[in-house]
Amino acid sequence: DDYLQTYREKVNAVTAEEVEQVAKKYIIPDRMAMVIVGDAEEILTQAQIYAEKIEVFNADGNPQELAKYMQTEKVETADISGKWSLSVDFQGQNFPVSLVLEQNDEMVSGKLESMLGEGVVEDGKVKGNKFSAVAKSEMQGQTVELTISGIVENDSMNGSLNAPMIPMPLNFSGNREK
After folding, report:
1. How many whole angstroms separate alpha carbon 54 and alpha carbon 120?
2. Where do the domains of the chain lie, and which CATH numbers do they carry?
3. Please, are residues 151 and 127 in contact by the beta-carbon 8 Å criterion?
4. Region class of 125: left (phi > 0), else alpha (psi between -120 and 50), else beta
5. What is the CA radius of gyration of the chain?
6. Distances (CA, A) of 156 to 113, 133, 178
7. Rounded CA gap, 71 and 109, in Å?
8. What confidence tens digit (pLDDT) does each residue in 96-116 have?
9. 67-103 pLDDT, tens digit each
């Protein structure tokens, strides 16, 4: 009658030996694949010890050159401060977004404005020409956190926005206003 309690009892009844027996039968290390989502440059150094072969893909699923993410020399931090006019692709429609950023060394903060409202950008970091931050905004009375990541080249920016309620990243691109 109590599904949760019955489930707990059955899980607790499984022995370590039974788990090992099933693992030996079904887990074949030579045929395993691991998928790790995140900033390749930050993750690669940690993931390399677990794999002989590593492939990197961008947010659209396109293969990337591994060497591009294996930077060893110190890269100059890009200046991403200023007002950015961005276009966000949402299901084939482009929506304007304004991003105003303030930068102190590698730390970034600011605000995000869109037709859905305003948000505060915080916890931002710049490493070389790559950046990431979190924008907190309100949507229909609920606080929403958008994870922003991208690349800046001179006065151009492109990247993606991720939110828990949106299954796929929203790609954006745009330019710094002069």
Report:
1. 36
2. 3-69 (no CATH), 82-176 (2.40.160.90)
3. no
4. beta
5. 21
6. 18, 17, 12
7. 26
8. 999 999 999 999 999 999 887
9. 877 765 667 899 999 999 999 998 888 999 999 999 9
